[in-house]
Amino acid sequence: MRNKWNVHPIYWLKALVITLMAVISFPVQLVERIVFSKRIKNAKIKQPVFILGYFRSGTTYLLYVLGSDPKFVSPTTYQVLTPHLFLLFGKGIRKMFDSVMPATRPQDNVKITADSPSEEEFAIANMSPYSLANGYVFPKKIAALFSAITHDQKAKNEWKTTFDYFVKKVMVRNEAKTLLLKSPMNTARIGEILSLYPDAKFIHIHRNPYDVYMSNERLFEKILPKTALNRAKEETLDDFIMKSYAETYTTYLQSKEKLSHTQLVEVAYAAFEKNPIEVLKHVYDKINLGDFDPVFKFLQHEISSTQSYQKNEYSSLSPERIDIINKEWGFMFEEYGYEKKV
Fold first, then answer.
1. Of 150 and 14, which is predicted with more confidence?
2. What are the residue ranges of helices labelled H in 58-130?
3. What residues form DSSP beta bridges with 104?
4. Is the pLDDT of residue 308 over 90?
5. CA 166, 169, 172: angle at the middle one, nearest 5?
């Protein structure tokens, strides 16, 4: 309703199918909510761990590696895509997704299965209008959506309610584990997260701003043809990347001052890529994630499984774009010691 059927004609059939699926599944959603309401309400979340970092900064790689530690539990692909149904029909949904899903993500060739750890932002998009993942469906409104999520108190309150409900659903069958979550939007939500879970811990991964910009351009280029219901101009998306990155990190740098030295650890993507075990050992020690030695073999196995991964290659930035990035994101170069191009 918020988008007032702002759908391009070529996507009308896709929109109709999505609408029909939502209508058909609604009675089953109600059944799941009723059957599991008490267990969801009573689910406990203690010292959840949040991976932060702007889009395309290495958050997924970090999630995959950390998620191999058996003490952690994260939402899976099939759970975030069917957040209303997975407690009742998880086994069937998992099989269905594995039979139709591609082996890798379209934007970066990262492996993906129905059971891969995924970001809860997609679940929130299925449950509420206040998820930036909805911007991949309606990219014309992505900037306005980002503004509402980060500034409107009603939107923040609804996000908190929806988020807490969903992650408690994830914990219903994983009560003995520690919740591990990753959503780039959470980089600007530290205040909201702490109001829900004062004992939360945070791992922030940052990446060279030039690489972040080029990778986000690639993200929109690859993902929107598969997800969008309308079309946004290239300059609209470029402007969104520039402004949302700057605002996300302005908020983050202010908010991180609220955290104790055992609640936050920051790592550079380049260092993690080069020496992952060394960086992970530092992470475990800094925010007290437990004894590192017993989980080393799990982490090393996941790292080894990605050694053949081929990163995307990008064309070089124009001098004009470099100047804009230097001006708009200059504070991040200074904060984390990245060298500016001239």
1. 150
2. 59-66, 77-81, 86-100, 121-127
3. 111
4. no
5. 155
DSSP secondary-structure letter at 306?
T
- How many Cβ atoms sit within 10 Å of the Cβ of residue 215? 22
What's the CA gap between 36 and 154, in Å, rounded? 27
DSSP classification of residue 111: B
Q: Which range (49-53, 104-108, 254-258) has the least confidence? A: 104-108
Distance of CA 52 to the CA centre of its chain: 8
CB 215 within 8 A of CB 223: no
Cα three-residue angle 157-66-333, rounded to 5 degrees: 70
Q: What is the end-to-end Cα distance of the chain in Å, rounded?
A: 46
Contact 229, 137 (CB under 8 A): yes
Q: How many CB atoms lie within 10 A of CB 83?
A: 24
> Does residue 203 surpass a pLDDT of 80?
yes
Question: 22 vs 201, which has greater pLDDT?
Answer: 201
Distance CA 339, CA 342 (A): 10
Tell me how crowded residue 339 is: count the other CB atoms within 10 A of its CB: 8
Reply yes or no on whether the pLDDT at 9 is more than 90: no
Place of tokens 């900064």: 57
Q: Token pair for residue 238?
A: 């470029």
Give per-residue pLDDT as tens, 223-243: 898 887 888 899 999 999 999
Spell out the domain ranges in the chain.
9-77+117-336
| Superfamily for the 9-77+117-336 domain | P-loop containing nucleotide triphosphate hydrolases (3.40.50.300)
Contact 238, 300 (CB under 8 A): no
Cβ(214)–Cβ(317) below 8 Å: yes
| Helix or strand holding residue 182 (H, E) | strand 178-182
Task: Compute the distance between CA of residue 162 and CA of residue 179 in angstroms, rounded to an integer.
Answer: 16
The angle that helices 234-255 and 209-227 make with each other, rounded to 10 degrees, is 130
- In 3-state terms, what secondary structure has residue 309? coil
Edge to edge, the sheet with strand 201-206 lists 72-73, 178-182, 49-52, 201-206, 264-268
